[in-house]
Amino acid sequence: MVFPAAPEGVPRAREAAARTLAAWQIPRAIDTALLVVSELMTNAVQHTAGAMAELVLTHGDGLLLVEVHDNSSCPPALVRGITDAESGRGLQLVHALSTDWGWTLLGTDRKSVWALLPVRAAEQAQPARPTEESEPAAAGRVGA
């Protein structure tokens, strides 16, 4: 999924990621993943010379890989000890929320910044069981 490497690309990427994660039925990962998408996309917007950034999501074996490709070969820098700065905390959040994160060169003038997040598939919906105090659920309806 390709988005402008501009401020308007960040919410577009977040919305696309939310739709993808919902389709994959991993809703418990959505909030954390969207924060990571926002931070990685914002990093690409602020630090790339290119016009576009690519969001790649990969899911399997209980893990979600979030990647943002941009047109810069400069490595991302995890800045520690920031207390009153208005920016610079994005990769600290990514570091705190992910199982692992890093970056990989893609040729001479592109890179991928990635984060690995643990996820669980949505639990199978269990039919509601009527209690003695409640009426039985209508056939084919749960929680009616």
TrEMBL record:
Q: Which organism is it from?
A: Streptomyces finlayi
Please give the residue ranges the record annotates as the region Disordered: 124-144
Q: Does the keyword Nucleotide-binding apply?
A: yes
The highest taxon in the source lineage is Bacteria
The GO molecular function terms of this record are: ATP binding; protein serine/threonine kinase activity
What is this protein's record name? ATP-binding protein
> Is Ubl conjugation there in the keyword field?
no
Outline the extent of the Histidine kinase/HSP90-like ATPase domain.
Answer: 3-103
Any Pfam family from its record, for instance, is HATPase_c_2
Q: Which UniProt keywords apply?
A: ATP-binding, Kinase, Nucleotide-binding, Serine/threonine-protein kinase, Transferase
Q: Which SUPFAM superfamilies match?
A: ATPase domain of HSP90 chaperone/DNA topoisomerase II/histidine kinase
InterPro entries on file: Anti-sigma-factor_SerPK, HATPase_C_sf, HATPase_dom
